Every structure is written in C-alpha cells, then in structure tokens.
Amino acid sequence: MVVFKEQGMTKTRFAEDNKIHINSATSYLENGVVPEWPILIRICDKYKLSPYWLIIGKGPKKLFEKDEGPEESEKIFETAQI
Length: 82
Description:
Helix 2 packs across helix 3. The protein is mostly helical. It is built from six helices and no strands. The model has no long low-confidence stretch (mean pLDDT about 80). The protein starts with a helix and ends with a helix. About 10% of the residues are buried. The chain has two domains: about 35 residues, no CATH class; about 45 residues, no CATH class.
C-alpha cells in the first residue's frame, strides 16, 4: 500500500495502529492481500481513504472532503451491500 510508504509508516506501526498481527500487515502492504471488510473499513476510516481506490487502485485516493467524516463511509458500505 503505497500511501503508507509515502507517509513513512513502517509495517510495525501500521500493525500496531490497526490492531492487527505483523504478518497480516505484511500480507496487506507487500503481498497485495485485501483485508477482510471490518479491517478494510477501519483502515479507510482511520486514514480517510477510498475503499475503491485501496482495492482497485482507481478513482480518488481520499474518501472524505474536509467537511465529511467516517459516517460517509458507512453510507457507501450500506449502498455496496447486496
């Protein structure tokens, strides 16, 4: 996940900040494994990233505009559920 490297974040820091095992962090950051939905939502909310961008790599990187907050991501995920 390039965005975390851009911020100078280490795998250890990423794992600690997101309460995940270091092996999971390695899988997500280096091996292209997509996190399960609860973790993905937490990462997107924490770093204000678009889940679409994070998974697909297209579209805007940031999820929120300056006046929006995490509740906006809940609307997106509610809409996306089948």
